[in-house]
Design a protein that fits this description.
The complex is a heterodimer of chains A (109) and B (113). By secondary structure, chain A is mainly β. Chain A has strands at residues 3-5, 9-13, 18-25, 32-37, 44-49, 53-57, 60-65, 70-75, 84-91, 97-99, 103-108. In chain A, the strands form 2 sheets. In chain A, strands 2, 4, 5, 9, 10 and 11 form a 6-stranded mixed β-sheet that branches. Chain A has a 5-stranded antiparallel β-sheet with strand order 1-3-8-7-6, with no helix packed on it. The radius of gyration of chain A is 13 Å and the shape is globular. With 113 residues, chain B is mainly beta. Chain B is built from no helices and 11 strands. In chain B, the strands form 2 sheets. In chain B, strands 2, 4, 5, 6, 9, 10 and 11 form a 7-stranded mixed β-sheet that branches. The N and C termini of chain B lie far apart (36 Å). The relative contact order of chain B is 0.34. The chains are: A mainly beta (109), B mainly beta (113). Chains A and B meet through strand 5 and strand 10 of A and strand 5 and strand 10 of B.
């Protein structure tokens, strides 16, 4: 089976930076996704990494190291609306997505 | 555009009864998926379809069946519901099965008593 680990919860202050780590061990690798999920809503796509390095999209950045089986999602200039769960998902050798349990981020004023 | 719609939004079902969760997408995506989301476990793939007329089993297929008669619709059927099938069910689609980002519907919250 696939093994994807991310912290359960993180708390940060409005305007600050938070880094959510994700480590994975999967049968093959064909890309890593980050999704945002607000309570009671559907996951929405944030970012995709398939090569090593940093992908930047406005206040959000995602980093991948394939050799270390490691990714992080960086949220900058935190806003209250960023309070949500962040899901790390790996596309394995069969091109199926396996998800971590998610990291709940709480932004405090 | 509507994207992906799911029905019903929520349902309470007696154990042993059958139920079909509906999923429709208007993006002409080839691939569709069904996931269940349980607290502390993340999203788990139940069944998928890479193109109309084909289906495949995911990580947790037991107790569920699917069909893909056309591109737009991908219903999920519970033939005889059990309490362990209480969950939030998400349908998703992607343009191509292998390489594209998956987009999710709003979910169906199912409670089996």
């Amino acid at each position: 089976g696939q093994n994807i680990d991310q912290p359960t919860e993180m708390t940060a202050t409005e305007g600050a930076i938070v880094q959510i780590n994700c480590t994975y061990q999967t049968s093959g690798f064909n890309g890593l996704f980050w999704y945002q999920q607000h309570a009671g809503e559907a996951p929405t796509f944030l970012s995709y990494n398939v090569l090593d390095g940093l992908e930047e999209k406005g206040r959000f950045s995602s980093f991948l190291s394939r050799s270390k089986g490691y990714s992080y999602l960086l949220l900058k200039e935190l806003q209250m609306k960023d309070s949500a769960s962040y899901l790390c998902a790996v596309r394995d050798g069969d091109y199926k997505l396996s998800f971590g349990a998610g990291t709940t981020v709480t932004v405090r004023a | 555009t509507a994207g992906i719609t799911q029905a019903p939004t929520s349902q309470i079902l007696a154990a042993g009864r059958s139920m079909t969760l509906r999923c429709t997408q208007d993006m002409r995506h080839n691939a569709m998926y069904w996931y269940r989301q349980d607290l502390g476990l993340g999203l788990r793939l139940i069944h998928y379809s890479n193109t109309a007329g084909t289906t495949g089993k995911g990580e947790v297929p037991d107790g569920y069946s699917v069909s893909r008669a056309n591109t737009d619709d991908f219903p999920l059927t519970l033939a005889s519901a059990v309490p362990s099938q209480t969950s939030v069910y998400f349908c998703a689609s992607s343009e191509a099965g292998d390489t594209d980002t998956q987009y999710f519907g709003p979910g169906t919250r199912l409670t089996v008593l």
